[in-house]
Amino acid sequence: MADLNKLVEELGKLSVVEAAELVSKLEEAWGVTAAAPVAVGAAPAGGAAAAPAEEKTEFDVIIKDAGPKKIEVIKVLRQLTNVGLADAKQQVEAGNTKVLEGATKEAANDAKAKLEAAGAVVELA
User: Fold this and answer.
1) Is 70 exceeded by the pLDDT of residue 28?
2) Is 122 within 8 Å of 61 (Cβ atoms)?
3) Using CA atoms, how far apart are residues 110 and 46, in angstroms rounded to an integer?
């Protein structure tokens, strides 16, 4: 019997291209496919097809609380939105302020990370 630990170690050394080639060869040799099986479920009780839940693509970035480092949060806010100093200060001090509206998931997560690193409490909506 093969030493499974050694086999796992050797397979871990394969590059992505080599691993894909290995999969193809195993599929060919064994007459199988590595595609994920599709589960066939019963129809919904109402008889209508269930609509798949759509993934949210637009996010609002909201500062809930500036935290103890308001100046740092103001600096980050100005970088993200290009607002003036007075407006940024007012937004940060007001709390529950929408910083970005309709941002992509990546942009919203990036803004959230920057604001949280500056000390703010941020929410994505």
Assistant:
1) yes
2) yes
3) 42
Q: Where are the domains of the chain?
A: 59-124
**Global pTM value:** 0.54
4 by Cβ neighbours in 10 Å (0-12 / 13-18 / 19+) ranks as exposed
φ/ψ of 97, rounded to 5, equals -100, 130
Residues 6+ apart with CB under 8 A from 115: 61, 63, 73, 76, 77, 80, 99, 122
Quick check: helix, strand or coil at residue 41? coil
Burial class (CB in 10 A: 0-12, 13-18, 19+), 73: buried
Which DSSP helix (H) or strand (E) runs through 75? helix 70-81
How are the residues of the chain apportioned to helix, strand and coil, as percentages rounded to the nearest 5? 45, 15, 40
What are the tens digits of pLDDT across the range 34-76?
A: 665 555 555 555 555 555 667 788 888 898 988 888 999 899 8
- Domain 59-124 top-level CATH class: alpha beta
